[in-house]
């Protein structure tokens, strides 16, 4: 039985935290938000207007929307996306692209995962994990 995602509304919220001058043709935007205006779906778009390329490729990243017990697995979690970036940076560190900046980024992602796991364990201990409550 496939479970449905809870209702959300369509939006276009451009994000700029990732931008650097050397890669201006990558646009990231939130496309869906839940009832708390928390983005639940992101689009990563290669913008042909900026670089003259005729292709318009994109990746859609749907995040988990709603609790797993009620809505099933319907998207990626913050932890899984951080784990992907962590694995990628660790790979760079085993290559000629190793650098101090990657090392620091790895440490910060590991810290983020530590705190997110701590949050989950705390929610489990309080009996609210999988429930839509603080």
Q: Features of this protein?
A:
four-stranded antiparallel beta sheet; 4 helices; alpha+beta; 4 strands; about 130 residues; 2 domains
How would you portray this structure in words?
With 134 residues, the chain is of the alpha+beta class. It has two domains: 1-76; 77-134, no CATH class. 38% of the residues lie in helices and 21% in strands. A four-stranded antiparallel sheet has the order 1-2-3-4, with no helix packed on it. A hairpin with a 5-residue loop joins strand 2 (26-33) and strand 3. Helix 3 (78-93) packs antiparallel against helix 4. The two termini are 28 Å apart. The mean pLDDT is 79.
How far is the N terminus from the C terminus? 28 Å
Mean pLDDT equals 79
In angstroms, what is the radius of gyration?
18 Å
Percent helix range: 25-40%
Strand order of the largest sheet: 1-2-3-4
Strand content: 15-25%
Number of strands: 4
Task: Assign the structural class, choosing from mainly alpha, mainly beta, alpha/beta, alpha+beta, or little secondary structure.
Answer: alpha+beta
The total number of structural domains is 2
Biggest sheet descriptor: 4 strands, antiparallel
Series of secondary-structure elements, N-terminal to C-terminal: EEEHEHHH
Number of helical segments?
4
* CA-based shape: flat
* Low-pLDDT windows of residues: none
Give the topology.
Elements: E1 9-15, E2 26-33, E3 39-46, H1 48-51, E4 58-62, H2 68-71, H3 78-93, H4 100-126
Antiparallel strand pairs: 1-2, 2-3, 3-4
